[in-house]
Specification:
The protein has 239 residues and is of the alpha+beta class. It contains 2 helices and 13 strands; from the N terminus they run ααβββββββββββββ. It folds into 2 domains: 54 residues; 128 residues, Jelly Rolls (Sandwich), CATH 2.60.120.
Length: 239
């Protein structure tokens, strides 16, 4: 704005000096020269500081732009690093999920079938005694071990037992879930002939729950190579 104003003043001066030159001669030309010098001085004094201020302002803007660009580059690098880290975490999570799914598939195949003993009579004992069905014919999932079935996954399970008596007296069995007695079957035998009873139960179990059978005190069971007392079970479906 100041530069434009100065140019306007110069043009007005030139126009005035031209008119005076035609009528007044050399003395007026001196006045015009003095006016031009005065305007040049004023223009120099008023324009130069503005130019340097604008240059300084532009320089400051350039510095700010450089800082902004550096910040953007840093943010992009950080974003790329975070993205790479997130991709690794996602990949690891997917691998863990696949591993758990495969493990779950393996654990959902659960079934066992066992027989008691080849030794003949089992009992009587003075206290309740865990029945360790020692002849294992099927143990898919390896959930059965030394008389105890341990649920590998939460689910609904089916269990069945058959016991044999070959004596005069009591024959019976308890079914335990962990330390809880959930079933009791008993028979009285009056003659020394084979006698059997079978029962079954469907239970909802948590992973880690245990099922076992126990012989009540003073009761007797029988088994031999014919596998007449058996215990079996299977996972019906997981939950």
């Amino acid at each position: 704005m100041r530069v434009a104003f100065g140019l306007l003043v110069l043009l007005l001066g030139l126009c005035g000096s031209g008119a005076q030159g035609e009528s007044g001669g050399l003395g007026e030309e001196g006045e015009s020269s003095e006016l031009q010098e005065e305007w040049t001085q004023q223009t120099t004094n008023t324009t130069s500081p503005d130019i340097w201020a604008e240059i300084k302002e532009l320089r400051d803007m350039v510095v700010m732009l450089k800082v902004y660009v550096q910040m953007l580059q840093h943010d992009n690098s950080e974003m790329a690093r975070r993205l790479t880290s997130s991709e690794r975490e996602l990949l690891d999570s997917m691998k863990r999920i696949d591993k758990l799914e495969n493990l779950n598939k393996a654990n959902t195949k659960v079934a066992f079938y066992t027989a008691l003993t080849d030794a003949g009579y089992v009992g009587p004992f003075t206290t309740d005694t865990t029945l360790k069905f020692s002849k294992v014919f099927t143990n898919i999932g390896n959930a059965y071990n030394a008389g105890f079935f341990k649920a590998p996954v939460k689910g609904v399970y089916y269990f069945q037992f058959t016991v044999c008596g070959y004596h005069t007296g009591l024959m019976g069995v308890y079914v335990y879930k962990n330390n809880q007695k959930i079933m009791f079957n008993v028979e009285w035998k009056e003659d020394q002939l084979y006698k059997y009873f079978t029962n079954s139960v469907i239970l909802e179990l948590m992973a880690g729950d245990e099922i076992h059978l126990a012989l009540p005190a003073t009761h007797v069971l029988y088994d031999d190579g014919s596998n007449q007392s058996t215990f079996s079970g299977a996972l019906l479906f997981p939950l």
